[in-house]
């Protein structure tokens, strides 16, 4: 009954979305206030309806209603509650519903809090949002209905893939989607601006917080996913350049570029056309990512053929969205004139370079991801584009961007002096040279790439810190003034400091863990000992244990360093009955210097166990760096100019008082 | 989301889809000669697991990946050098098994692409800077003598007032 209600709510949501997509748009065009005013209630009603549908599906999962096909295929009554809930988006249909839910929630947020937007512009934004919703609702209703019944209902469900039964993964898809869908806001604002024919600094001030928020979520989502891969998949890797990862990485690259170019629109009224184009491209890549992965076309071109309805719908939707918005762009963009002029060497010029390299890198990832598909479709040749390709192409493209990102924030707007900026970075340069020297001395026998790699990370972090020190006039002005400056300096500048330093940390984590990793694979008997770098692992034995919905073997390893006890590590090898599957639970010990990583595998015929140990120096810097980047985004988001409306209004009220005071003072 | 779901789907396929008994992390018997084992491991990292997504056979749990690992070790023990061992595998499984796509007619665009993108992007940027810098240059051109005179007159007028 509830499932039918959910289904019905979706049908109603589609009709509301159809109205929202057309009437307010026409109203804004004709200047009809009544039609314009329709946008707001429509967005709220649409949101309510999708929330009802989502709640209905979640109810079916939580109560294990196996008469719903989707629940029967993806859930099991013995699953812990958290995974019953996360099972809702752990499948094709449910994840699309989650996508929709986030989309309409964002739309409702614009309707509720977009008071400072001109009514006609807000109506246009909401109409564009509704057009996206129409596409997704139709896709869900016509090809991927999550509420389909299965009669007679089975006794129990087929269960969620045990690999996905993990807290890290329960929250990974929602964050990723918050990111993808967040970019739909930038898209809707861009398309609405194109229709309106106006892009100005105020536009950028509306778009930037949405883009920032989306970027934070996406960063967090990608970081969670790679962290999960690292600790759950059991071979210590965290990024494989597989097409599914690339699908989330491309919007991130384009979104990062968008974030930076929107600064130029906001501060200098330049790069407008480019920023609008980036907003369109970023969301298109989000859509492409969602669909590429969901359609299964990445596994093989033939997956498209197994469900032609879905495949054709996806292609048509992508073409309509991308071609439609680009056509609109081609028609309207030439009319929009950029304002602020600047020299190539300037803050703006630095951001242009950032955009140039990020978009080239993004295009490269796109090429590498889609090339095998096209080659297969056109010639039937099958090739694999794996990590070696991306390391060889993406790496060199990002290198200049990373070197330059340290200098960018030091450059003045309009026209800057590179030598002057470098002079102001003298401590960062000294720190980089020191890092170069130290790695050369300490790690001369390691891979040579580690030496410039670590120095690059140090360069980015040190430059971010030195830039912040200049902002505070630290050590050059009395400490009181530095503190005053700390209180007064804009939060967005601090956002840059954190995010850039975070990127430096990621670099150091990647370089150190890949260059100086120690890896040991062997077959061990109880009592045997293996040296892994400066640590030794002693196998104390394996015992069978029982979990809530799995059986497991747990190995015990005593870790010693210089003979002193460090830790007892207990990796597990689990076997789930439903669906039947084996997973590894690596034991990970995170210390200041890095991670120790232990895995127990299969027993051999004569009672020994296969084991794997890694010592991964500084690998946790990768995720710490990601968190710093997200933190930077959040700090920047809290900048007062984004707390739209409220401060301005308060100032207005405060003014008479202040004037009175100052008059009284005189 | 996606990435991970799909990847895990492959892991499921790797683990459960094959008729052989499922393995957890497969650690097989290394070769006795550590130098040979190191060569075998280096080759493992260049070959893809046939039933996984972009994972090397070194990193894969799949039974098929283990078979390939054993095959590589066999070739090394049989006296193949690295190229011969890889060629042996490629002859049986095709270019698809190589994580780094070979450079040939079909992949030319793939390898040239990034360079083309970069050249194109730089060209667009240069043209854009040129086009918009022309008005700037005009704006800061020195005044003509006629304009100088007019300016002088204007200033003189103002001084008189």
What's the pLDDT, averaged over the residues of chain B?
74
Largest interface: A-B, 79 and 58 residues
In the CATH hierarchy, what is the class of one domain in chain B?
Answer: Mainly Alpha
3D shape of chain B: rod-shaped
Q: In angstroms, what is the radius of gyration of chain A?
A: 27 Å
Largest sheet of chain A: 6 strands, antiparallel
Description:
The complex is a heterodimer of chains A (666) and B (161). Chain A is α+β, with helices and mostly antiparallel strands. Helices cover 65% and strands 11% of the residues of chain A. In chain A, a hairpin with a 2-residue loop joins strand 2 and strand 3. In chain A, helix 7 crosses helix 9. The radius of gyration of chain A is 27 Å and the shape is globular. With 161 residues, chain B is mainly alpha-helical. Among the domains of chain B are: 25-100, Cytochrome C biogenesis protein (Helicase, Ruva Protein, domain 3, Orthogonal Bundle), CATH 1.10.8.640; 103-131. Helix content of chain B is 63%, strand content 0%. The longest helix of chain B is centred in the last third of the chain and has 32 residues, at 108-139. Chain B is rod-shaped, with a radius of gyration of 32 Å. The interface between A and B is large, with 79 and 58 residues.
């Amino acid at each position: 009954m509830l499932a039918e209600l959910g289904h019905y709510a979706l049908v109603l949501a589609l009709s509301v979305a159809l109205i929202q997509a057309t009437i307010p748009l026409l109203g804004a065009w004709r200047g009809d206030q009544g039609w314009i005013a329709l946008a707001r209630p429509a967005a709220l009603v649409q949101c309510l309806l999708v929330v009802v549908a989502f709640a209905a599906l979640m109810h079916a999962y939580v109560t294990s209603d196996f008469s719903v096909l989707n629940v029967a295929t993806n859930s099991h009554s013995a699953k812990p509650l958290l995974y019953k809930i996360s099972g809702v988006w752990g499948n094709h249909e449910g994840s699309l519903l989650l996508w929709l839910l986030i989309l309409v929630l964002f739309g409702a947020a614009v309707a509720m809090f977009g008071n400072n937007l001109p009514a006609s512009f807000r109506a246009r934004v909401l109409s564009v949002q509704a057009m996206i919703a129409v596409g997704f609702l139709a896709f869900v209703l016509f090809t991927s209905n999550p509420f389909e019944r299965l009669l007679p209902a089975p006794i129990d469900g087929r269960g969620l893939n045990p690999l996905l039964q993990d807290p890290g993964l329960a929250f990974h898809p929602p964050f990723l989607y918050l990111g993808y869908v967040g970019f739909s806001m930038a898209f809707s604002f861009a398309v609405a601006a194109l229709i309106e024919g106006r892009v100005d600094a105020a536009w950028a001030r509306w778009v930037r917080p949405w883009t920032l928020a989306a970027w934070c979520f996406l960063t967090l989502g990608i970081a969670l996913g790679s962290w999960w891969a690292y600790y759950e998949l059991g071979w210590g890797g965290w990024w494989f350049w597989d097409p599914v990862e690339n699908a989330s990485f491309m919007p991130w690259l384009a979104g990062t570029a968008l974030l930076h170019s929107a600064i130029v629109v906001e501060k200098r009224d330049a790069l407008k056309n480019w920023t609008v184009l980036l907003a369109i491209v970023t969301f298109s890549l989000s859509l492409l990512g969602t669909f590429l992965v969901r359609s299964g076309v990445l596994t093989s071109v033939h997956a498209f053929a197994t469900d032609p309805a879905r495949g054709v719908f996806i292609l048509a939707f992508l073409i309509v969205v991308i071609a439609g918005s680009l056509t609109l762009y081609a028609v309207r963009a030439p009319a929009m004139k950029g304002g602020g002029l600047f020299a190539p060497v300037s803050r703006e010029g630095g951001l242009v370079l950032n955009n140039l390299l990020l978009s080239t890198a993004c295009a490269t990832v796109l090429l590498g991801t889609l090339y095998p598909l096209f080659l297969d479709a056109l010639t039937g040749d099958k090739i694999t584009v794996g990590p070696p390709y991306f390391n060889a192409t993406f790496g060199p493209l990002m290198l200049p961007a990373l070197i330059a990102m340290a200098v960018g924030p030091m450059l003045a707007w309009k026209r800057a002096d590179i030598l002057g900026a470098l002079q102001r970075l003298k401590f960062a340069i000294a720190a980089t040279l020191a890092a170069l020297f130290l790695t050369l001395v300490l790690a001369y026998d390691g891979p040579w790439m580690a030496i410039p790699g670590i120095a690059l990370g140090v360069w980015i972090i040190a430059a971010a810190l030195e830039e912040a020190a200049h902002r505070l006039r630290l050590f050059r002005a009395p400490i009181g003034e530095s503190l005053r400056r700390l209180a007064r300096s804009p939060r967005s500048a601090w956002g840059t400091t954190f995010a850039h330093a975070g990127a430096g940390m990621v670099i150091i984590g990647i370089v150190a863990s890949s260059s100086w990793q120690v890896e040991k694979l062997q077959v061990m008997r109880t009592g045997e000992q293996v040296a892994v770098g400066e640590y030794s692992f002693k196998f104390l034995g394996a015992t069978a244990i029982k979990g809530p919905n799995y059986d497991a073997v747990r190995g015990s390893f005593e870790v010693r360093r210089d003979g002193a006890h460090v830790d007892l590590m207990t990796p597990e090898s689990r076997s789930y009955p439903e669906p039947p599957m084996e997973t590894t639970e690596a034991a990970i010990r995170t210390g200041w210097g890095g991670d120790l990583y232990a895995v127990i595998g299969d027993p051999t015929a004569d009672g020994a166990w296969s084991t794997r140990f890694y010592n991964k120096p500084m690998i946790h810097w990768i995720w710490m760096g990601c968190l710093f980047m997200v933190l930077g985004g959040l700090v920047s988001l809290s900048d007062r100019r984004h707390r739209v409306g409220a401060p301005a209004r308060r100032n207005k009220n405060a003014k008479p008082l202040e004037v009175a005071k100052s008059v009284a003072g005189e | 989301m996606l990435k991970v779901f799909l990847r895990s789907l492959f892991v499921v396929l790797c683990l459960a889809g094959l008729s052989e008994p499922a393995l957890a992390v497969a650690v097989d018997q290394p070769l006795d000669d550590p130098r040979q084992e190191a060569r075998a491991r280096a080759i493992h990292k260049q070959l893809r697991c046939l039933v996984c997504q972009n994972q090397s056979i070194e990193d894969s749990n799949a039974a098929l990946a283990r078979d390939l690992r054993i095959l590589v070790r066999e070739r090394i023990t049989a006296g193949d050098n690295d190229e011969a061992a890889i060629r042996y595998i490629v002859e049986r499984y095709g270019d698809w098994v190589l994580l780094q796509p070979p450079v040939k007619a079909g992949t030319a665009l793939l390898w040239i692409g990034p360079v083309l993108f970069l050249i194109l992007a730089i060209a667009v940027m240069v043209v854009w800077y040129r086009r918009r810098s022309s008005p700037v240059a005009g704006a800061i051109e020195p005044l003509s003598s006629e304009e100088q005179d007019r300016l002088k007159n204007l200033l003189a007028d103002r001084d008189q007032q």
